[in-house]
Amino acid sequence: MGDPQLSGEQVRQRALLRFDRVERAVHWLNASLFLILVLTGAALYFTPLIALVGRRRLIEQVHLYVGLALPLPLLLGLAGSWGRGLRRDVGRINRWTEADMRWLRGLVDNAAGRRPSAPRPRLGKFNAGQKLNAAFVAGGGLVMLGTGALLRWYVPFPLSWRAGATFVHNWLAFMFVVVILGHIALALSDREALRSMLGGRISSAWAARHAPAWLEEASDQ
Amino acid sequence: MTEHAGPADELPVRGAGAEQPVPSPAGDGTQEPWSKPIGRRTVLSVLGLGALGTLFGSHLQSGISSALNAVHANGIASLLPGGGQFTIYTVTSGYPAAPADYTLRVGGLVQRPLSLPLAELQALPATRLTRNFQCVTGWEVADVHWVGVRLVDLAAHAGVNPAATAFQFRSFDGIYTESLTIQQAHQTGAIVAYSMLGAPVTREHGGPVRLYVPSMFGYKSIKWLSAIDLVARPQPGYWEQNGYPIDAWISGHPPVQAA
To answer: Closest residue of A to B15, CA-based?
Structure first.
């Protein structure tokens, strides 16, 4: 295959599978559970919402069990033969290349109002921002799970740990909301990318623009 | 995600190859393809920060509390965690309102059952305390000022039957209950409070009358208090039926000196 950026209408029309059925299911199950956690968490935390909703015991139980269930879609998605695409994307997200570092530097240059110091990097399927977001959500999610479990089954732990767990759980929840709002804003600013999380496929024109190395890799197969 | 570092390690060789389709000889400098497991490192770093925050966050929290209190006037800070503020809980739908003809009932194993309007409760000898309010979930409000009638004084006022061993409390929210042994009432110096934070106890904080039990977690300090019964065998309270310890000592044991 030739350089995808120079290929004609035929390549442009071809749609690549960006996220398979399992990945999309995991994403939307995650999103639904996360939304319930944000809403119940807010109803446990903000005094005006507590006054409105009340029922602390019920809300706590929903928050607890939904929180415990949150890792399940991802773990189930990764577990079997159906998880090949997801496992492969997890591998892509884990590994950073020099192009990712250059993309990040370009972002910094852009924010500082400088002209990019290096040519536009040829990115793979995910850019460094997406990789950072995924790693933050994974690590932060585990921290929320750990601190939340500590707060629920608190008896064996010293009070200072509980205070620390409350501190971490509350602040990290705020960070999660900020990061997820950014995620949603970026998704809404690129409707084609958003649609690919619904239908799975994306045009090779999009891939040529945002993920040329991935387009090449996919075309080679 | 860390469990899947295995497959993550195997796959990217292909991804990296795709990034740099023409491998350059070793030592070639800038063109040498590489890929690093920065995703996994990020996950582990976040986990490490979370663990550090859990172990030492209570110290950080007090610093953040004073910083936030300094800018508290702008309102936003009060929404952020760590402001040293109350998170005001309720187990029913909202904060219940006291009936207009509120009275505190003291009954059960007593010689003279009482039915005290607020003014009569306030006419009894008052006790003032300034203590921290410690929630079982970890947050704390420092130096809360309380005014009320000592529980043991109130019991003496009604005349305790020798068979009684404990207090059983009911809330006019219709759901919340608590209990405290007579011995614990002496040990803690628990009060039936009608003033808190320098003002009458507000509706959210359990007004007009609530319990305050020093040295115990906040769930003992029942809000919207409507009835106190002296009983021979106390029933576990609302949260205690849901797994919390019946003896809610913050330090795990009674204070050495009675309050």
So the answer is: A92
Contact between A140 and B91 using a beta-carbon 8 Å cutoff: no
Q: How far is A139 from chain B (nearest CA, A)?
A: 4
Q: Residue B112 domain-assigned?
A: yes
Q: Is the ipTM value over 0.90, yes or no?
A: no
Segments forming the whole domain that contains residue B171: 103-242
Q: Which domain holds residue A208?
A: 12-220
Q: Would an 8 Å CB–CB cutoff place B55 in contact with chain A?
A: yes
Q: Does a structural domain hold residue B86?
A: no
- Whether residue B153 sits in one domain with residue B200: yes
B49 & B109 share domain: no
Q: Are residues B167 and B150 in contact, defined by beta-carbon separation less than 8 angstroms?
A: no
Q: What is the pLDDT of residues B241-251, one digit of tens each?
A: 988 899 999 98
The per-residue pLDDT for range B81-100, each reduced to its tens digit, is: 655 778 888 999 889 999 99
Distance CA A108, CA B70 (A): 33
Residues of B in contact with A136 (CB under 8 A): 42, 46
Q: CA torsion, points A197, A202, A207, A211, in degrees to nearest 10?
A: 20
Same domain, B70 and B121: no
